[in-house]
Amino acid sequence: MLGFSNIVGNLSPLPELVLWRDPVARSGEEAMAVDEALLEWGRKPVLRAYRWAEPTVTYGYFDEEATARAIFPGEELHFVRRWTGGGIVDHRQDIPFTLAMHRKGEKERPSSAVLYRWIHGALARVLRDCGVECVMLDGDAPDGGRACFSSPVTSDLVLPGGEKLAGGGQRRVRGGVLHQGSIQNCLLPSGWDELLAARLAEKHSLCVDAELFPGMNARVEELLASKYRTEAWRSGVRHGRPSQPR
Fold first, then answer.
1. Please, are residues 96 and 57 in contact by the beta-carbon 8 Å criterion?
2. What is the dihedral of CA 237, 179, 164, 20, to 10 degrees?
């Protein structure tokens, strides 16, 4: 997270960022493996905008598939466990994004709460620029259960009437932070992701290639075979920090 500085609880923009418009529609497992590979890469912060290949529900690292299926029944749904925390998310009509950052040269690491508020602060400005009125919560809303968009929490974005617009889950490792975000209950114009990149970083470059860096696809396949497609992962086996890319 090079370039982060704590100024009265706010974080300054990153010096640079890669905006990757992933052109491949991903299965849930593949989307998770891609995000982990991005965090491992660590050369530059990456904002990834992407789409799902199938109707998908993800559940957080500490949740269970049975709980997710009970909340969102449906034979057409594909259920996937995330590496990040957070609740259970129905992605059938969402706008997903990922922010993967390393903290090279950073002496003080922002807390999860500060980082979450910084990301959503930038996103709030983008939503307003796109004509979507929103409010950032200063505290948790009443508990609506494990369904993420029924239980807005501190620094989530909501419509003025309280309906949740944006939430996310994070994974923090010694090398960096992965934020997996979801935007729902609004329509955004094409180019919203570039507006967000401009809010998050002083400068950004755009990539639309199917492989962001050499060896990415091979690493994704490794993660799928060793982790995200295994029954052990689905059933709740906990994994530590990611192994290093080859």
1. no
2. -120
Q: Is the pLDDT of residue 238 over 80?
A: no
pTM greater than 0.70 (yes/no): yes
Q: Are strands 135-136 and 10-11 parallel, antiparallel or unpaired?
A: unpaired
**Cβ neighbours, 10 Å, residue 151:** 18
135 pairs with which residues across the strands?
Answer: 158
Handedness of CA 237, 219, 167, 10 (dihedral sign): positive
Non-local (6+) Cβ contacts of 71 within 8 A are 88, 145, 146, 147
Q: What is the pLDDT of residues 144-166, one digit of tens each?
A: 678 888 889 999 999 999 999 99
Strand 201-207 relative to strand 157-158: parallel, antiparallel, unpaired?
A: unpaired
